[in-house]
Amino acid sequence: MADIFATLEDIVGLRRKGNPDASYVARLTAQGRAKIAQKLGEEAVETVIAAIGGNKPAIASEAADLMFHLIVLLADAGLTLDDVRAELARREGVSGLDEKASRGT
Ligand SMILES: N=c1c2ncn([C@@H]3O[C@H](COP(=O)(O)OP(=O)(O)OP(=O)(O)O)[C@@H](O)[C@H]3O)c2ncn1[C@@H]1O[C@H](COP(=O)(O)O)[C@@H](O)[C@H]1O
Q: Would you say the CB of residue 15 lies under 6 angstroms from ligand 1?
């Protein structure tokens, strides 16, 4: 089965320049980067609220909204999930605590 994130990224890439009357991705993209970022922030807050509530299906649903909007934002910024994968790969094996200590702040 194809990775759903890769599939979604392809769909978002196609829909970005679509008809705003027929596509949510096209409509949101047409509203600009700040609006996309605002939606991402809203979905992040909704994910936080669901996490505190502790209902697993609700958390998964909000996380899906969050990931979807993150993909829309990345596409608008000219970035792909491969860019995020590369950054995470770069960090692989480096403890978050060690990295924080190395900042010396
Ligand atoms: N995965 C998603 C997806 N997840 C969430 N959403 C939409 O994201 C929006 C989230 O907004 P809210 O929950 O805040 O609800 P809202 O009241 O509509 O929000 P606002 O009015 O405040 O903008 C809703 O309209 C959801 O339907 C999604 N819309 C599209 N996709 C995927 O993107 C593909 C392309 O979609 P279109 O661009 O619409 O063709 C679809 O086939 C799906 O695979």
A: yes
